[in-house]
Structures are given as structure tokens and as C-alpha cells.
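ok trying this again, last paste got cut off
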Amino acid sequence: MLKDLQQSFRTLRNNPGFAIATVLVLALGIGANTAIFSIVNAALLRPLPYKDSSRLVQLWHVPPAKSFPGMKRFALSLANYLDWEQQNHVFDNMAIYRYANFDFVNGDVPESVPAGAVQSTFFAVLGVRPLLGRTFVPEENEAGRSNVVVLEYRFWKSHFGGDPKVVGRKIELNGQAFTVIGVMGRSFEKPDWAKIWTPIAWTSKERTVRGEHHYLAVARLRNGVTLGQAQAELDTISRRLAARYPEDDNGWGATVVPLREEMVGDVRPGLLLLLGAVGFVLLIACANVSNLVLAKTMARRKEMAIRAALGANRGNIIRHVLIETTMLSVTGGLLGLALATRAVELFSILLANKLPQTTDVRVDGWVLTFTLLLSVVTGALAGLLPALRFSQVDLEETLRQGLGKTDSDVGSQRSLRALIAGEVALSLLLLVGAGLMIRSLEKLRQVKPGIDANHVVTMTISISPGKISSPLMENVFFDRVLAGVRAVPGVRAAATIDSLPLSGDGSTQPISIAGRPQLAMADQPEVATRVMSPGYLQTMGISLKRGRDLNEHDRADSRPVALISESLALRFWPGEDPIGKHLMLTFFPGVTREVVGVVGDVKQSGLDVIAPEATLYYPCAQVTSSASASWQSFPLSLAVRFAGEGDRTQAAVLRAIHQAGPTVPVLDVRKMSDLLTESLAQRRFNMLLLAGFAGLALLLAALGIYSVLAYSVKRRTREIGLRMALGATPEQVLRLVVFEGMKPTTLGLALGLLAGVALSRVMASLLFGVAVTDALTFCSVTVLLGSVALLASIIPAYRATRVDPIRSLRDE
């Protein structure tokens, strides 16, 4: 083994061009795989930073299919959760939580701090302990005792300088004093929006509410309990509750989702697709290296024959070739690891908003082990065919023929062509995937979002219940804000909305149609609801199809009105004029709203949501009471349309807002066009990576074809010289060599097309508006790959036409 290592090192040292080319090819393949595996390891394989994380699950309601078509998960109602908690026998512990928002003044700058309002069992369920202090006790979930707070690690560092004496300190949130009782560790970020945690305090009335769904929940399975058993238990409880409370719970079910699946489910298909893509790149690299090694070893057949004549058996020869390729592969792996380290840093930045916050992408021990094993396996795979080929050398025939520098070997040529066909087929698969992603992204860009995002800037204004104690006061405050903003020179329109388009946020509520049979709430249809101020349609560029827009006369003391989207009108009044029809929001009993206008459909949840979302808009001024047991103010978004780009005017708008509320935080100031672009960010990232890997595969395939043909021309110099001496023209020689290169290429294209049709179905969930067998994509990439292969064939073919027949025959 040691002698083989020494001999391989000398051989590679004496052939630096071959060694460098091989190492670079392997470095690209191994580096790409290492980089993507680092992300997959962090997001999908590495355990979550919680105790026995495999036992943690997320709990959801499953809404009635007829009210929520296509929706599989829904937020929880408090009363139902409390029944789940009391009646289940499959969970060790459960905890409920929801979003909350607090005003925190740090110096003179107001800041809105997103928080997790949690049950006292929350941290125990996840199995985490604070870095400093303690977490909540059950008594702190009672009203009047909930003014305590636990800080997130980064919030503690940035706002309190990492002061270890922060425990016991009083801070002001929403104008009230809260006591800091603990600080969580660096890796704890659940829910991912929370910068602080506070206890939930429920009144006895809130504990009985079943129709309002505002909560999320986590639970820990008991030892030995499977996911299926937990699901069956909650199904039983849900049926029991539906029978006991048919008005609220009929048709409502439950689902149990592993916490890891909940955190990474959205990114899993894309990551696995990229991992498969880089796997194909590595296989192409292996085929390329096999070609290089096979071609190089063909020139050493005499050496192999002499080794065999001196006593080397088949295993000795196989070992010698495998050691050589493994040395190259390990060297390429080390270089690839360096490339992957840089790539991981870049991917961490690009994927910062796409992966769970707990995902720490880094090159750790598992990644290093993966790279080492991958390098060894790649070296063995790349050298296996050449090793087997030359371990079967015909000793007598080889020594008798001598195999001079211009002899050929038909068997090895067949192996080379087979490897080329494999490279081309794999390259075509990647090109098909990249082409489908490009076409899908292009289709998404053509989708009309239902708004005009140009020259619109959005921002979030957060006001706390401590400053605004009722919806009526909130309306007065925002009226002042809008009056000040609209008076700013350069502002064409301004309005507020509770949820921006494309954000995926917003409320859905059950409604009933006047004049139709009254249904139980569980059977009532649900629609998306938006609370907006007059001028929102003009600000966002939403078209008014019929009727009128909301205006300043739609006040609390006027008749309740609403706008509806075209899809809502078609759903409830097909073939009828909906203007003048009446409906009621179930959570606002006794308030019947008249439909005064129909507006165009708007993409609320994303450009890739094909079905239009039935949406109802009603004026902020007519929200004078809350259906909830206690008033809770939520952030509103302010949209401003400028005459131009508005960069200089934004500062004046912010000043106008702070004149209306000096301590009101203004967050997330950004252009609506940027939000539109960000909605495509994940698909664009997947497309760019897949296209990059496909381009790399195309380059490797071209290099493979070129190297094999260049070697073939060199080995067949005598044959080509004889052909030309006997009258063959340069054009005939050119066709001969090009045909030799295109024959395996054509086979590879055929195999790649067949495999592409089968494997492209795996990408169906990642495509939009494009069939998995899109003819334009398949034809385009086939022509592209065929053209590149033709170009790679022409260069060595042209060199073949320059052979001097007299000189080649004299050399022999």
C-alpha cells in the first residue's frame, strides 16, 4: 500500500496538467455537495436545540372543508385548547401561545417589540432553561400578576449590553412597569418573532370562547406514544367537542405535526431538490474523472502488463488505480471544503429569511466527516471502471503489440463513450430542472398581483393598548396621521390597512348572507377580511369594478358598508348584481353591512396562489367595538403613494406621523415593489442555484467530450494519417471525428430526455404555470446541450484535419 502511494504520487507529480485538471473537477463537485449538505444538515438533520426534540409537536385546528376549502391548518381557540389539555392522555405537557406587541422606549427612540405571550408551561414543554433567572410559574397566568418578562438573548445583548444584573430590573412596556425575571440562551428562538416573552393572562370569560382562533400550541409526546396515537386521541376529543358544542365546533378537527416538520416543511422540497442536483453534478464529475483516468491509463497498458508479468495480480492493479484516484479525490475534497466554507457563508446570508431562526449553517464535524467520506467514495467510484478495465489486460497480446503511442484500444473506447453518454444524460436532467424553474419564475413575474406597486412605500405603525384604549380612539389617532401625511408635498394618496397584499397575513371570518337560511357558525362560509381607510384603493392601485369606493362619510354613525372582491361576488351572487346586497360578519353580531362596491381580486397570500381569495373590505371608522373579551390593538400598515420615487419625501412623512404620535414606533419602512420582489426570493434563489449547477454540469460535460475526443485524435494519429494519405479530405476527417463525439452525445440526450420526463414530476410542487413535461423547455435544453457538445467535438476534429500524413507515418 505504501509503495502504491509513493508510486501514485510520483506519477501525478510527473503529470501536473492531468493532476490539476482532475483535482479542479473533483473540487467543484465535492465543494458544491459539501456546501448544500451543510444547509441540509443544519435545517433537516441536526437535532433542534431542545431536549428530546423528536417528541415535540405543533398542534393545529383543521377547519371545516366547506368553509375553508383547501386549508389544512388553522389557529386554535382557547376553550378548545383547554379541553384538549384536560382530556388528552398522550402528552406529557402542553403550552399555548400567541403573538403580542409592546411599545418599548429605549432612550428617546420609540420601538415596537414583538413578543410571545405564553402559557407558564411553555419553556418546560420545550425543555429549555434560562441563561439567567427563571421562567414563568402558573400563578403568573392570572390577571394582575402577569407583569413579568423574559428577554431573548440578542435583545438582552443589544438593549441591555448583556448586563448579568438585568434580572429584577424594571422596564416599561406599553406604559406599564414589567419586571425582568430571566434571559434565555443564545439558541432559543421560539416563536421566531419573539424578542421578549410575557405570560398570558385570561379572564374567566375568555376561557369559554370557542369561535375565535388566535392561538398556537406546542406539546411533548409521552414516552412510547407515536404520532399516530396522538392524532387518534385528538380526533376523538374533537368529535366529542363537536357533539357537545355544535354551534362552534361542528366540522372542526385537529392535527399533530412534528415540530421539525413545522419549522422546515416549506424549505424541505427546495433543499432536497438542490441536494439531488449537486449529487448529479458529482456523478458528472466522477464520469469526467473516470474519462481522464481511463484515457491516461490506456497509455499505461504496457506498464500494467509489465506489472502483471512481474507477479502483480488483479487485486494489485485495481488497488494501484484506486489509490491514485482516491489521492486525487481527497486532494480535490480538501480544496472543495475550502470552497464550500466560503459558499456556506454566502448561502447563510442569502437564506437568512428562508430558514428557521434556529438553523445555524456551518461546517461542523458532521460536514467534515461527510466531505471525507464523499471524497473517498468519489475517488473509488471514479477509478472503479478504469481499474476493472485494466485489471483484465491480455498480458501476451499487450506485450506482443507493445501498444505504441498511436495504437488504439477498442474496448476502452467503448467505455469512454459510455461515460460520455452518462455525463450528457445527467447534464440534460439538470438543464431540464433549471429550465423548468426559469420558465416557472417567468410565469410568476407575469402574474398580475391586483395592485400597482410602483411609487408606493409601506410602513407599520404600532400603538399599544396603554395609549389607545378603544377602537374609537384608534380611529381618531389614525385620522390625524392620515391628515398629516396627505398634506406632505409629493404625496398623492395615503391609507391604512390591517394586512398588506402578498404578506400572507390577515384575518378570515365567517359571514352570513341576509335573506338566506341562518347556519351554525361552524357551517358558515369563511372569507378574508380587511379593515381599511378610505383612499386605500387609490393608494394601492386596486381597480373598482362597480359601485363606489369607501369615503369619509362612512363613519361610525352611518350605515355599515363593505366592499367585496370579484371572487367573493362570484362565489355568493353568481349571475347577480351584488351592489345593495347585505351580509353580516359573525364576530360582529347585529351589524348588517351593505355591499356598496366590487373591487378587483388582489393576491393576498402570494403570487403563486392560483385561486383568487374571496375578500371583504370594511372601513376602520365603523369598527367601534371589539368582539373579543378584551380590547387588543394590533399594528396597522400605512401605505403612501408618491408622485415620484419619494425618497426625499419619506422623511417628511415620518415627521408627520411623529407629530401625531411622538412616541409611536414606525417599523418596516420599505417600497411595495420590494415586497413584490421578495415574494419571489425563495423561488429565484432555488432557480439561480439549480441553474448554476446545471451550468457547471454543462461545462463538465463539454470538457469530458473534448478531452475524450482530443485523446482519441492523438491515439489515432497513424489511422488519420493513413486515411489522408489514401485520399481522405479534411472535411471527411472532420465529419469522422465529429460523428464519433456526437454518437454517444445523441445516446445521452435520448436517455436524458426519458429520465427527465420521469424525474421532472418530482419538481411539480416547485413549479407554477408550467407543465412538468413542458415541450419548450425540453426542446430548448436539448438543442443547447447538443450545440455545446457539437462545439466541443469540432475543436479536436479541426486539429485532426491538421495532421500531416507524411510526418505521422515517418514518426511511426
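PB: full thing came through this time. The first strand starts at residue 56 and ends at 62.
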